[in-house]
Amino acid sequence: MDLNQKRTRTVDRVDSVDPDLVSPESTPMCPFPDEVLEPVLSLINSHKDRSSVSLVCKDWYNAERWSRRHVFIGNCYSVSPEIVVGRFPKIRSVTLKGKPRFSDFNLVPEDWGADVYPWLSVLAKAYPFLEELRLKRMAVSDESLEFLAMNFPEFKALSLLSCDGFSTDGLKAIATHCRNLAELDIQENGIDDLGGDWLSCFPETLTTLQVLNFASLNSEVSFSDLEKLVTRCKSLRVLKVNRTINLDQLQKLLLRAPQLTELGTGTFTQDLVTRPVADLEATFGSCKNLLTISGLWDTNSLYLPVIYPACASLTFLNLSCAALRSFELAMLLIHCKSLRRLWVLDTVGDMGLEAVGSWCPLLEELRVFPADPFEQENVAGVTESGFVAVSRGCPKLHYVLYFCHQMTNAAVATVVQNCPGFTHFRLCIMNLGQPDYVTNEPMDEAFGAVVRTCPNLQRLAVSGLLTDLTFEYIGKYAKNLEILSVAFAGSSDLGLKYVLGGCPRLRKLEIRDCPFGNAALLSGLTKYESMRSLWMSACNLTMNGCRVLAKEMPRLNVEVMKDEDSEDSQAHKVYIYRTVAGPRRDAPPFVLTL
Amino acid sequence: MSPPLLDVEGDGQGNVSLMTSVSSMESIFQKNAGLTERNYLGLSDCSSVDSSAVSGISDVKRNNLNLKATELRLGLPGSQSPERDPDADLASSESLDEKPLFPLLPSKDGICSGSQKIFVSGNKRGFSDTIDEGKWMFGSSGTDSDTSNVNVKISPGVQPAMIKDATSKVASQEKTHATFGTNLNKVNASNPPAAKAQVVGWPPVRSFRKNILATNSKTNDEVDGKPGPGALFVKVSMDGAPYLRKVDLRSYTTYQQLSSALEKMFSCFTLGQCGSQGAPGRESLSESKLRDLLHGSEYVLTYEDKDGDWMLVGDVPWDMFIGSCKRLKIMKGSDAIGLAPRAMEKSKNRS
Question: Is the model's pLDDT at A139 over the cut of 60?
């Protein structure tokens, strides 16, 4: 590459992401020739580090933009595709995130936006050799998938997480036309499942597949086509099948692909016993490289033990589709001494969690999902004692997502005493406004303990009965907090003011159903440009308050979603984010940009 | 609103007098007295209402319902029009802020069947005294994901007071729920506590997870031996087999499905006679052998019905069959001499 040519290119200025470059171009400041700088920079993969690199000086900015191969866009409306392709000429991999996270819980209306098509049409011209596309919470249509399949001849990896708007027809297009496909990862999307014949569209010549995840699709696929595909793709390392694949079929697949590192099983029980269970167990034993097992639908005490031979080296076990009971989990965990991440349903109960504490000393991440989230009476599930039991046995625990019906301040304080290294603490007490069930006090002290004891806390989700005191604690102590989720909490504007006044690293703040009003919103005026986004729904905001904010901060998009019945002056759902792309041009009629 | 309206059930024409407060409605009411009911409230999904309109509910009461709804609609700003289909899919949050629909009468007739949904605006006065005896479908079985969510618009203005309430009282679970915009909690003392109203997007569980969990809980119940809401397990015995099996009749919809499932289930017993299994191709071969065995004179599928009689499977419609079947038995043809000729005839007709 002609280095002189590079130096003469004009530098794109990206304002709120990139403050003005500091130093004038002068050789003493930048003694490294590009031949040295480029290879060094190409080793840097973290996009945050790359951002920092690009701020050093013009030379570094240029070197960085030419060497960047992967671009991460956390909010698809914060920048336009034209700006991105203008700054980075040689991108091979794009990650795009669209809708606010609360869209996962039906708080964002359909047709809100985040359509990937406008991006694809720009990317096709600028990066014809694009290889990877990872989308999260984007609106993806079949047309977009077809466009993707037809316009990027080198395309290798597609990952769709929590997207919606497409059907299995779109997958057919991908399977048919992407000759070099290495990764197809379809997770948890709002997909129109029209049938399983998309899998049969992979050509016989395709041998490059490394990752195939269709666990969230419902339709049956042709097993013989799947088996042939697995057989000829010798580099396959991740295979996650859907529930229609039975145990016999799974065994056949495992025999074809003993090199797998991540396995998602299908249904893990059977009526018909054609082969003894010992056979299946031996097959699992022959898969020496397995690190992750998931799926395990419908499993029970008879069949779960077949995975024991593979458990010793497992680092991630995802049992969130298997309603295990405490003793079943305990028997399993005895074999899982290397486990680092565990996802379970709350059917395992506190006793199951005690087993976790006993057998998994290396555990770093625990997620306990509710088996019956809407059942409000006669609920079993897990309580504070299970939480404490895990913390006692797993001192390395740093990520927890815990759904429960009751909790105490003392228990949470004990947990963080035992595990002060928490980076992600997401506690969901499912009963709204539930206080400490022993003392009947608010849960303020619990989260106070969390933020005081865990200096590395990056992500926090609070629940239960909370007053402004919780937020005072958060604002005061949570210096590294980046993501905060609040629902049905707080007593007044002060709560939000505390948070906005503290938390220097806050990036994403999502709030629903809290008594925070305009004064609180406006107290954070200067903060919002340093954040990715703010979501506030069912709070006390009014249109006037939002208008004031929009006027004061022109580089923010202040979007209000109108409801049919809410009064005109109320701002029921507000989504605020920084952007260099100006107001959305594709906003639907119910989204007002102020 | 006149509370006596709510105690309408069982009363006859005497309730007409209660309508006098709505003079314009009165004339409509009298006109309607002799006519067919109009389904103003979208109660068509309540079978008890439609089919038993004459038998179970008096005309007066039906019309009272209409009138009452009308009256209340006038009283409350922004209420829904009664033509609104209460069963509209509310999974999309466009319908997040549905207005209150007609109130449900605490009727023993089950007017308020499980498929009704109620929408309450947290700010406005809910129909606190009109709640049915807990016949709500809140997805408590976990089978319905979003469609069974009840919208509760919790106005933040109401909240601070509610929080104070909660802290000052002994915070039982129910009370706590009561404070969050669910003005629906006042029920008759004789009724079990009303199910709590649900809030959109709470708990924050992704929708794919709700579906997985629902079907899993059913499966888990099977393992426990307690049938889930949908399962109907019956024993299946086969002559000569060392142990019995159980099948869930509700997981099939035709005799053909049941028959092929049983073939698969019991093939291992008859296959023993056919030699070892070996390569996968042999499975289908052996299964077809079994099919021949079953459809031939060798085996006959029978069931024991509620009266204790052994009947041949296949005579009655499927739904009637699963309603009366207590257990299944795969009989050898020699034991089923009395039934065998019909069995052969049946198998010829079937294939």
Answer: yes
Neighbours of B104 (CB within 10 A): 23
Give the pTM. 0.66
Query: Is residue A407 very low, low, confident or very high in pLDDT (cuts 50, 70, 90)?
Result: very high
Tokens describing residue A539: 């709070």
- Half-sphere exposure for A82 (CA within 13 Å, toward CB): 3
- Rounded mean pLDDT, A519-534: 94
As a whole number, mean pLDDT of residues A34-38 equals 81
Separation in Å, CA A308 to CA A317, A353, A407: 12, 19, 33
* Max mean pLDDT range (A98-112, B151-165, B196-210): A98-112
pLDDT digits (tens, 9 = 90+) for A299-329: 888 899 999 999 999 999 999 999 999 999 9
Using a CB-CB distance cutoff of 8 angstroms, which residues of chain B are in contact with residue A325? 220
Nearest CA in chain B to A490: B160
Q: Please tell me whether residue B153 adopts helix, strand or coil conformation.
A: strand
- Per the prediction, chain A carries an average pLDDT of 90
Q: Write the CA distances from B57 to A319, A434, B25, B52, B64, integer angstroms.
A: 50, 42, 20, 7, 11
A387 vs B76: CA distance, rounded Å: 47
CA A209 to CA B275: how far, in whole Å? 39
Alpha carbon separation from A43 to A38, A67, A558, B332 (Å, rounded):
9, 9, 38, 74
Share of chain A above pLDDT 70, in %: 93
pLDDT at B110 over 50: no
Task: Kindly state whether B78 is in contact with chain A, defined as any CB-CB distance less than 8 angstroms.
Answer: yes
Longest dimension (CA), chain B: 86
Helix axes A142-151, A117-126, angle to 10 degrees: 10
pLDDT for A421 beyond 90: yes
Query: A281 — contact with chain B (CB < 8 Å)?
Result: no
Q: So what's the pLDDT on residue B281?
A: 42
Terminal Cα-to-Cα distance of chain A (whole angstroms): 46
Span between the terminal Cα atoms of chain B, in Å:
66
Nearest to B93 among A108, A320, A492 (CB): A108
CA distance linking residue A284 with residue A280, whole number of Å: 6
Using CA atoms, how far residue A55 sits from A47, A200, A332, B53, in Å, is 13, 49, 50, 76
- Residue A437 CA to residue A449 CA, distance in Å, equals 17
d(Cα A499, Cα A494) in Å, to the nearest integer? 9
Q: Where are the beta strands (DSSP E) in A466-516?
A: 483-487, 508-512
SS3 content of chain A, % helix, strand, coil (to 5): 35, 20, 45
Say if the Cβ atoms of A488 and B162 lie within 8 Å.
Answer: no
The pLDDT-based confidence of B28 (bands split at 50, 70, 90) is: very low
Cα–Cα distance list, B38 to A22, B18, B43, B68, B331 (Å):
76, 20, 10, 14, 55
- B/e letters for A58-77, b = 16+ CB within 10 Å, e = fewer, are bbbbbbbbbbbebbebbbbb
- Measure in Å the smallest separation between the Cα of B337 and chain A Cα atoms: 29
Q: Are A489 and A515 in contact (CB under 8 A)?
A: no
Distance from CA of A104 to the nearest CA of B (A): 6
In angstroms, the Cα distances linking A255 to A273, A278, A279 are: 18, 14, 11
Q: Is A154 helix (H, G, I), strand (E, B) or coil?
A: coil
Which pLDDT score is estimated for A1? 44
Q: For residues B198 and B142, what is the distance between their CA atoms, to the nearest angstrom? A: 13
For the ranges A182-196, B29-43, B211-225, the maximum mean pLDDT occurs at A182-196
List all residues of chain B from 127 to 186 with a beta carbon under 8 Å from chain A. Answer: 138-140, 142, 146, 148-149, 153-157, 159-160, 162-163, 166-167, 170-171, 173, 176-177, 179-180
Confidence class for position B182, pLDDT limits 50, 70, 90: very low
